[in-house]
Please model this.
Amino acid sequence: MDTIFYNGIIRTQDNAYPTCSAVAVKNGVIMRLGGDEEILPLALPETKRIDLAGRLMLPGFIDAHLHLLNYIEFLEQVNLSEARSLRQVRELCAAKVAQAAEKGRWLGGVSFNQDHWDVPKMPTRKDLDEISRDVPIVIRRACFNMSVVNTKGMEMLGIMGEREGLTSMLLGFYDDGTPNGIIRQHSQDVLAKAVTIPGPEELKEMILKACADMAKQGITSVHSEDYINYAVDSSELISRVYKELAAEGNLPLRVYQQCAFRTKEQLEAFLATENKPGAEFGRYKIGPLKVFEDGALGARTACLKDGYQNDPGKKGILIHPKEELYGLFVTAHKNGMQIATHCIGDEALEVTMDTYERVMNEYPRVDPRHGIIHCQLMTRELQERFRQLNIVGYVQPVFIESDMNIVDDCAGSELAKQSYNWRAFIDMGVHICGSSDCPVEAFDILPNICYCVTRAKKDGSKTWYPENGITVDEAVRMFTLEGAYASFEESVKGSITVGKLADLVVIDKDIYTLKPEEIQHAQVEMTVVDGQVIYEKQ
Ligand SMILES: [Zn+2]
Model:
């Protein structure tokens, strides 16, 4: 044996052998499970013995939807998530203006949320002009679905001449019909002109830094969406960088790429290369086509069947009309590719489900495992369709921390109480996997597990439909075995089972016996990929 971990509380997620105290690993694979008295005698002089000292060991965590490169970029921009007023936004940005001017770059701010401000009103370009009229500025809303640009930036983007009613862009306008600096949804693609796409070496450094941070949270695999990070299709460059890192043996985590494309043509061009669905390049693997079908609740762009109760006349938006969505889906599906679609509102979900059903009926395939990312608002009837079509749900438990403030107002309590209903999914036998959507939210897994169980605010001040919550063990499964299922890898990882990859995490406390609200404070102390310790808390 190469390594023996012993004296632990090992919770395996394998029903055939749910708990043990020791695990033996050789060549990155789990060879034996059992009690210390059975496993320790297998040690040879060269075997590394790691004393778990009574701590908890789980299968390595899998975050099934995040944006790895975007996470690093966000670290470099002005973080506006804590701002509580427009004035604070101005102060935070003003502090970085000189630096941006010096570099000749745009000043970028991220994660503002005007709902949390003293005056909850969307800012416009004139508000940002007070920070600078000379340096181009763009700030993005926390949900990613809206940006605001100052006048200098609007001029540089060449869109100051757009007029209300005459443009196909999703822009906001002042009463006089001139653009107010707000840019919505895919029209934010125009911001590609505001970013410099890093070169391969810089991209490699970004990936390594992100992986190192994720390893500290016990993450051993991610499903990451990176191809349209720079608004334009960068699939070739980004794939090449990941593959090089993997070939050099330097990719610390397993990365399953959620391949985002806006058009059928881009997808066809991609599939004509070596990037075939499911192709593996060491730890880098080609995952599903990722499609956006609506926006977000906070931006009122999530598409709701009955519209927004707190904003009469507003319904949100469907990004791809039905036939266009069908074109994308059928191209992926016929080529043997999995599909994962962003849907938050019930209307977007219904259109997507109809289109999944249509392609699956027209071109039957065994086990395509298509999925819905976010899957938030739905009736019981819509939820039932996940079971009928074996659609995977990708849920972000941490979203309820802020969404519980707005869902009932947006959609009405009748729909709200049927929504984010993880209990019903599991009772139906639907596969749901867990994720953070980082950098929309932090990728810390233990707080996510906590929200699954408590359905409460971080500080416990409010609980939201707690009957829709799940157990600790079910929540752990969402972030381990179900994440593996979502990438067709449940037979090789996701549980501590003999013959599977030795991807493991060690946590200071047994979260199964803690009070649920205390799970968020437990600490990851060690992360193991392929039997190698890639992170150890000092
Ligand atoms: Zn996302």
Q: What stands out?
A: Residues 65, 67, 225, 437 surround zinc ion (CB under 6 Å). Residues 106-194 form a domain with the Diaminopimelate Epimerase; Chain A, domain 1 fold (CATH 3.10.310.70). The chain has two domains: 63-67+198-527, 106-194.
